[in-house]
Protein 1
Amino acid sequence: MTALVIAEHDNATLKGSTLNTITAAAQCGGDVHVLVAGHNAGAAADAVAKIAGVAKVLLADAPQFADGLAENVAEQALALAGSYSHILAPATAYGKNIAPRVAAKLDVAQISEITKVDAPDTFERPIYAGNAIATVQSADAVKVITVRTTGFDAAAEGGSAAVENVTAVADSGKSSFVSRELAKSDRPELTAAKIIVSGGRGMGSGDNFKLLEPLADKLGAAMGASRAAVDAGFVPNDWQVGQTGKIVAPQLYIAIGISGAIQHLAGMKDSKTIVAINKDPEAPIFSVADYGIVGDLFEVVPQLTAELG
Amino acid sequence: MKILVPVKRVVDFNVKVRVKSDGSGVDIANVKMSMNPFDEIAVEEAMRLKEAGKATEVVAVSCGVAQCQETLRTAMAIGADRATLVETDVELQPLAVAKLLKAVADKEQPQLIILGKQAIDDDCNQTGQMLAALLGWPQATFASKVVLEDGKATVTREVDGGLETIALTLPAIVTTDLRLNEPRYVTLPNIMKAKKKPLDTVKPADLGIDVAPRLKTLKVTEPPKRSAGIKVPDVATLVAKLKNEAKVI
């Protein structure tokens, strides 16, 4: 029994989501191999080789993998799939794009966003925006899985696996990369941040989000938002925390002007400590917050920033 | 050019579902059902492409129980020209739905299939990608912009950390994200008109597809409850608590 992890990386560095996925793969009970499909991705492969618990790194290095196109990466995983009992990818935009293609071609079910491995064939996963947890069992020969990163610790360094080059599959020719526009920010990435400052519809406008910046700066925090704030056009979609956005579990989550719709709670309720600032004392966010302040955010946030010195 | 739009009937997004006391699932008896919100965005996008002269026909398809007809009527009230229901009482999992949709696509021969990135009930986020793989088509998931030109689709996607644009040969699959568009309100005259539009029904057996579930749900439980904390009177108290009690700053 061996598990194959499809690594998420940008050729130069490994994404943190891969480390959580490796932990989940190890819990499936066998050896862990990791596929790095990229272009000039030797550095990413070397980074994987140093992770404890990884027995082998498979490097498929070719131009058609440079931008992580789902058609090509899935085909590469399928070319290697024969010898594996489990194939896992992180439940991120990258992994969700690829894994279902692999599952469909293998004619097996995919188990999405697992938060726990109960047995090599039995997994727990949230459904209905996290309002219920389903325990599901797969009878398929290969288990194709996406891993909710907040459910598993990041695997640590301490390994020295061999990196083996594998033959790259041909380019599908059906999709091509055009451009990428990544937000440039000195702040930590939302899903990796220890502290998140998040704003909702109560912020009133996109401009008002500037009020949160000094607070986020002082805390070294990432900035997030509720779907309502994204819907209203205040901030970009990749800030969205919730059922259909990002799932986060930082040490500290500060929800500002967020009422706490179930879809938002689904994305942040596993945070260690939650602070809510809202003028409505009945807002549902207070039912999950460890500490709440009832008040006008436009007064409370500057006070909080000042108090932090 | 024909566009196929698969739509799913789900528990309305405003309903907070309850886990059944015997742990066999969630209680969806007598709760409001609606079209999956991301599929509504898919129908709207197909209509905008048709209205812009890029497409000639929009066909909605749904898989599931007889009541999915209501969902298809909603799709036709938004503007879809006709609809197909693949009717079954069997619990459908994404792989089975993808196989049924492939069979429908083989028959309809669309150039583009647009569907929601995820259904808000099982939160799987699989069907579009599986369908693309089964058809051997390229895919653009989590779309926030779709441009059809020169026989290809150029799609901007919502990815972690920003946006990515890719180009696909047609036929292709697009799955919708939140910001792609804002679906129109359905008007009463259009609801009336939708009642007269053609809706045909087939069974999975007619399409030669085995839809038996692959995953067995052993139990469904409530998530661990997070209890409410305390309200603090001022910012100074909050900072003191975060430093000394929670020890997170």
Protein 2
Amino acid sequence: MDESIVVNNLVYNDLFEGLNFHIPKESFSTVSGPNNCGKTTLIRILAGEIKTKKQILIDQTYIENYKLDTLAKYIAAIFPTEIIFNSDTVSAEIKNVINQKDLTTKEKKNLYNDIISKFNLTRYQKNDPNGLPQNIKVKLKLALLTILRPKIILLDDVTNSMNKTERKEFLTLIKDIQKELHITLILTTKNLEDSLYSDYLYILNDKKLYLNGTPLDILKKDNVLNRMGLSIPFMVDLSVKLQDYQLISDIELDMDRMVDLLWK
Amino acid sequence: MEISGKNIKYKDFSFDFHISSDEIIGIMGEGKLQLLKILNLDYEVEGNLSFDKHILKESNYNSVKKKISFITNDMLEMSFMKTVDTYMESIIRNRYLQIKDKDKKKKDALRIIGLNNNYLERLIGTLSSSEKKLIQIAASLLSNPEVILLEDPFLNLDMNLEKKMGRLFQKLKDQYHKTIIFTSDNSDITYKYTNEVFLLKNHEIIVSGKTSDIYKDVETLLKYKLEVPDIVMFSYKVRNKKNIKLDYHKDIRDIIKDIYKHV
């Protein structure tokens, strides 16, 4: 499979000592790990904010060989506490970005309406975008990115301040967008439940890549993850422990189905 | 300290409440931070706020305010300081705290939260975000508060740090008789680490009371679309669908044993 990002023997301060991994093109990956494992720093490195030399390949080209404006079109990152918008209203912000595209008036209007409804922003159209709650800011920023269409989108800990319902909604939305627009999407989070929406899970620990694979394969390693200080999603944890008692044979993520499985 | 509010009105808010002393209280939902700030006496509100049965008035405002510490998620105040010691000194100066033996007081505060004396010399820039949070809590103890208010202290903590914070709150309550009141968006946290909860919706207190009672009444939580912890939801579904009296547990190992007993 084609690689979108290759991290090759990355050494950085005290955080990484020879970090190696690659992210397949058009995949949705979650990067997780205990506090201070370097998740955010990794995203800053991949976004080109922190300089590296011959350690990061984006689409087979070393990141330092991209011109800044080309890189900005190629790869975009969202850091939830650092989002700043230029316009006075949400609708103006979206329209300004749409206007950068070569589209007819009708197409622009349709695109605007699509964006507003897909990202559930109808009630915020007249609001000051910089005054919005952080979760809505993240959604708006992501909406703007889907207009600009970078090939890679990096989301740094964006689900952190969301409650369960908001989290589910948001993760379903980004999974849809990732599939629809064929984007390589990377999400960092400390909540491993988020990874159930993604194709791959990478765990950073001890200055290196500690585990990687499909989320369920990694999440089954409850002892290793717990020792690291990571909590396992409830349904996975329950499944793994019930397997130990030989009460079920497979991981079951749906609570109702689990109840029916146990008491037929 | 016992705190109660009668006919409290502030902007969209309108509510009555009672907080017993020496408890750990969680506040969830829309308007949680405003409620925390009302308890910190940041706003002028209508109605009667009482502290230890004394109604808050201009005459006792200062003495009540001294008994309350507020810990925000804004680390700005700290980030301008060089070391933990200078940060604590600035707190003593800014809050006009009268402390006889400042050095001992600072070391005691660190000891209570489980950090050693060496931390006084640590550069603020070298502290992790969770260490900064602990230092904030230590500094808040310098004024001997009876009530400690915290803005989402569990945010950004991994599981080990989360458990540590939970144990610290328990210790502050049990050994030092502090009332701990914090906000959170996560029902798993409030279920595990509080004795009482206030669940808000649209700036109103919808449900409040003992944590163990409230999270057993899943029907009410669902009715108001309030978050239910997964572990509680599972027991609820088993009880409801299969008519099996699975208990409500906090630890997954306990629920596994209970399931094993019942299958």
